[in-house]
Amino acid sequence: MKAPAFDYVRPSDIGGVLAALQGGHAMAKVVAGGQSLLPMLNLRLARPTLLIDIARIDALRTIDDRGTSVRIGAAITHAELEDRDIAGCAMLRTVATGIAYRSVRNRGTIGGSLVHADPAADWPLALAALGATIIVEGKSGNRAVPADSFMRAAFQTRITDDEIVVAVDVPKLSPAARTGYYKFCRKTGEFPEASAAAVFDPVSRRARLYVGALSGPPQPLDNLATTIAENGITAITEAAVAAAVDPIAGHDPAERRMRRAAVMRALKDVFAS
Amino acid sequence: MTTVAFTLNGAPITADVQPRTHLGDFLRDNRRLSGTHLGCEHGVCGACTVLLNGAPARSCITLAVACDGADITTIEGFDHDGVMGELRDAFTREHGLQCGFCTPGMLIAARDIVLRLPAAGERRIREELSGNLCRCTGYVGIVDAVASVIDKRKPCEATADSVVPHVTAPALPRFTPVATQARPAASLPAEATRAPADEKTARQGWTRFDESFVIRKPRAAVWELFGDVPRVAACLAGAQVLSYDGKTVKGRMVTKLGPIAASFAGSAAIERNEADWSGTIIGAGSDSGSGSRTRGEIAYRLTSLDQDMATRVEVTVLYNLQGALAQFSRSGLAQEFARHLVGQFAASIGAQLGDDTLASRATGSSLNVGQLVWSVAKQWLRRLVGRTD
Prior knowledge:
The complex is a heterodimer.
Chain A: E1 7-9, H1 14-21, E2 28-31, H2 37-42, E3 50-53, E4 63-65, E5 69-73, H3 78-82, H4 90-97, H5 102-105, H6 110-116, H7 122-130, E6 133-138, E7 141-146, E8 151-153, E9 156-157, E10 164-171, E11 178-184, E12 194-201, E13 206-212, E14 219-220, H8 222-231, H9 238-245, H10 253-271
Chain B: E1 2-8, E2 11-17, H1 23-30, E3 49-52, E4 55-58, E5 71-73, H2 82-93, H3 103-116, H4 122-128, H5 139-153, H6 160-163, E6 207-215, H7 219-227, H8 229-234, E7 239-244, E8 248-257, E9 260-273, E10 278-287, E11 292-305, E12 310-322, H9 324-327, H10 333-352, H11 357-360, H12 368-384
Parallel strand pairs in B: 1-5
Antiparallel strand pairs in B: 1-2, 3-4, 3-5, 6-12, 7-8, 8-9, 9-10, 10-11, 11-12
């Protein structure tokens, strides 16, 4: 299977990307690693008329410690996050290590995963749970979008056709914080059938629990997270998890079970010692 | 054509390539390096794995044009590589090679494992090799071969599994979380408000869902509109009626979901039952681009509400999707796509009849997908007429 014909440009900076987006092409598409887009091109599900390659723009390839948060450039690959220990952001490494396969992680990027907005992808779920912020740049400057509202629906995000994601701000967790991440995959590296992420930080008093791999964006389980933060491990019961998950998990009994189990196992990480 | 220059197996090369040519095809067709095998061509099987700037990459989902200035090594470029020599010997010894199709990709992935994870045990090797499929299912020999090379290179007795210290972290203390900030209403999912599919009417391989929406117009007005096929089609963004003879409609439907675009051409038979305000549309279509085919049945029924000030429209959609798009139906995405279309249809029907409450409703019911898709449809229309605001 071969991709349809398209034009290709590789601007040297963000300004060049924004200019190319406004160049009047019927359907321009920004590409970084292309690890989700290229399969779609080869299957001819996607037919952009122009690809704008941002993978090598230096400004998108930095990881900056900003004190209370870490700013990760949009074109940082999953493998780079897998190989790096970022203080206060240990969960990034855990999540990156489980994405697809190493040869895909070597090319796929964190920004690309967010913008592609596949509901079963790891970064939309993990960054929502971490309370991250997505930095979006357009012709009128930067704006910040909370990661937990960035995806509107499957493959739909809050960036417009003339904007790009330039970075992700991930707040650092305290040493007392505990996180959990779990996904069910039929085969290692496949997209999950169900996934869940949990972040509990007693210092910043954040308690966030999300279920992912739905038909739309990851969904928060705020009440359950609050109850668990206040009451500890005793609050994690089959009934409590079912009550939180079932209303959003559809009608398929197997799907409901997998999602409950994903939440349970993510929480098990949090309370494992 | 675009000119690219990169290093291939140690030698600089320059070539003209089309932007759409992926690296795997370039290597095989342009450079005659047929050791790189192409299997699935969408990044699943790993047979096409090459080294790109020293790291394994899939040449079927890497554009040749994006490799300008890079350093590429194919299986042909490892003749004098020590680790690869050890792996070749080990594959021979452990019977890690059967038909040989996956072998170039397996060797390049295995070399990366040996160098990057010098303490990997069997479980880790299996996980790391999960992106390389062997159609002979000869995994035991392959894993043994990789493990034997790793074992031979280990400097001492200690293995990764035994040196991992067991750290006991302090238990999570209880705390009262700060209130979660209000988030913009998520547009999905609203499954809880949707009727479950009726098991008895479910057909093997078909997807069914039920959706309903209210239009604040009398039933007769809605019924009249539903009978006017070209007008109904105008409410479906991307739909185009080519012919209509009162019973059969032929047309085209262009849809878009994120990067996915499909253009279905097909025909449908339309029946209306005046007695109980119901109708059915049975049709089939195909997308020549992706080679996807769909068959579907839409049944609707109108109920009068509020002394006929409003009409409830109940829609049951039953469809079957085959081809490339169906492969993409993981996690009910195709179903969600179809739901979006119904939601968007509801908003447009409302707008046609002068009831804009559907299009402007922001949150609350299962119909907020309608609003979402309405905005997508507007973007699509903007592109269609060439405006760039």
